């Protein structure tokens, strides 16, 4: 299934993509695309619905973040060896973990706002997923049972805030609008081979990132197992798995986002995003 949220920011409604690619409303069945809906039981109920009987949604409706009521937004840094090399960082021996503020979450086509005093706002196309079942001290073999679905994330990052200030990556990762996710969530049973997905990102039509998830150092199941040794993962928690090479920081010379830029990005089978960049007021 492809699940999504549509409508004005802050008032999104749950929806689903039918076999013809049209958006159908799920309002009669669930309150949101969130933890309870993404449980095994919740997804089983959605699979039993006759999609043709659901109301159609205006194809021009705004798409919101594909997961609502996110509990934790956890990210993995330097998870592609070639990206670590381009940023002159050591290849990690275990996952590098940081958090994005949930207030950074936005829709896949919403505007990206460069924060005040920013001079190095950057892009990162990433494969993300959402937890559907509580995970605590799970093995890698068990981890797949805890992933509800996969989607696209643009891990927007302010590099000066992230790397040249207090040493806390979170400062450059959690600014408002820095976490577009969607356009939809593809449930794990339909997402295909997650270990071999093409990822790409363009700025103003120039392709900077052109990677593949087969270059990941730590797989989603490894990440779930690893994180669950230190914190319980709850239904509705979002985890983003790192970016391939081609970020602005790695260009020679470095290239960063500026007002008026357009970002387009996508992952094979998981859809695309498109954002316009503006300056903070």
Explain this structure to me?
There is one protein chain. The chain is an alpha+beta fold. It is 13% helix and 29% strand. The protein has six helices and 18 strands. The protein starts with a strand and ends with a strand. The mean pLDDT is 96.
Poorly predicted regions are none
Radius of gyration: 18 Å
N- and C-termini, Cα separation: 39 Å
The biggest beta sheet, please? 9 strands, mixed
Please tell me what the overall shape is: globular
Count of extended strands = 18
Average pLDDT, rounded to a whole number, is 96
Strand content: 25-35%
Helices, by number, come to 6
**Protein structure class:** alpha+beta
Helix content: 10-25%
Brief descriptors of the model:
9-stranded mixed β-sheet, 6 helices, 13% helix, globular, 5-stranded mixed β-sheet, alpha+beta, 281 residues
Describe the structure in brief.
The protein is an alpha+beta fold. It contains 6 helices and 18 strands. 13% of the residues lie in helices and 29% in strands.
How are the SSEs placed, and which strands pair?
Elements: E1 2-6, E2 13-17, E3 23-25, H1 40-47, E4 73-77, H2 81-86, E5 96-99, E6 105-106, E7 112-114, E8 121-122, E9 125-131, H3 140-143, E10 147-154, E11 157-158, H4 159-163, H5 170-173, E12 179-180, E13 185-187, E14 198-203, E15 206-212, H6 220-228, E16 238-240, E17 262-267, E18 271-279
Parallel strand pairs: 4-16, 6-12, 7-18
Antiparallel strand pairs: 1-2, 1-13, 2-3, 4-5, 8-11, 9-10, 9-16, 10-13, 14-15, 14-17, 17-18
